[in-house]
Amino acid sequence: MDDSQRFFPRSRTAAMRWVMCLSAILPLLLSGCAGTPVTDRSTEPEVVSSAPEVTPRPLPASEPATPPDKPVAEPPEPSPAETPVEPAEAGIAESMPVDPEEEVVAAHPPATQPPVAEPNEAPPAEMEWQRPQEQEDPQDALACFYQQYSELLHQYVREDGRVDYGGLRRKRLWLKDLLRIPHELDPNDYRNWTEDEKLAFWINTYNLKMLDVIARNYPIQSSRWLRLTWPPSDIRHIEGIWSNYRFIVMDEEFTLGEVERRFFHRSLADPRAFLAITYASLSSPRLRRRPYRGADLDQRLDEQVKALLSEGNGFRIDHEKGIVHLSALFKPTWRGQEFVPRYGTDKKFKDRPAQTRAVLNFLTRYISPDEVDFLEVENYSIEYSSFDWRLNDTSRSY
Known about the structure:
- By secondary structure, this protein is mostly helical.
- The chain has three domains: 3-72, no CATH class; 138-307, no CATH class; 308-384, no CATH class.
- 42% of the residues lie in helices and 5% in strands.
- β1 and β2 form a beta hairpin.
- The longest helix is centred in the middle third of the chain and has 22 residues, at 195-216.
- The chain is elongated.
């Protein structure tokens, strides 16, 4: 090691401290030597050259002055909290916070230039919405309703009109799905139907709901006291069949009784409708195994009337006793009054009440000429058969 390395360590900070200490002690040493001139020391050339760089202001020995030329001295290692950010890092750090307005602009494109998709480039869901003509045709929905209803009738209704309620009870979800179709029907589509299409729709819906009511209450539960008056299978044990069981059609609430009054009695008044609906009983008109349709409704209703009159309790003439037996449905106090608006007459059957005249005038369209002559000119009395309200069931014996 040479002399310069001995007196000036490698650390620049320590070297500067040595220089300052020597600069402070040197004047004292020089003042102690009497008249001795100061000469250059060849062994310490750097002390003489660095003396003019010493700050003239005296400082305590514990706080040596920092030379003005800061790049000469390497500052101590800074703490993490005081670490400055480099320009490149500062640029990154400043770019992270985002202006809220810039976020809104980035998330929502300008309203003045919305992205426009060509018709052929739109997603499938959007294409379907833009082309309403491809939506399901209301007539198709009604045809589906009649098709499913026809399948149900063929499976659970016999040719004689009796119903397998035991099997139908296990298909209550099917009944529920069928009743949902009238629920979702558009009233605007309904208004465009013909009168026959509307009447056929309400007859089918009425009969379907009646099947649903019986299936929900099958087997019929009866009290001991009511069985003294009615048989155990009498549907009158089911409380409120025509008033308590509600269903929705075209987003409107109905009951069976309201359908009768509002459509069969008023707006779509055709007394044959009361001979086409089922009463779920043994004296009920036969439940057809096919739905009614508007296209041939008049023909099907006539067939229904003839089927009722051909049965023993519908219409029968006892020539020996001079008695005309009629179904209880034709009573003046029940369905007989429904025939007055369309079939009422003052020219025949003048000795009969208005309801009876209307019923007899109606019957002459469906019976033989000999039977018509008997009704028009012979003397006879009319007897109405009692209505048998026992369930028209095939799967259970009470």
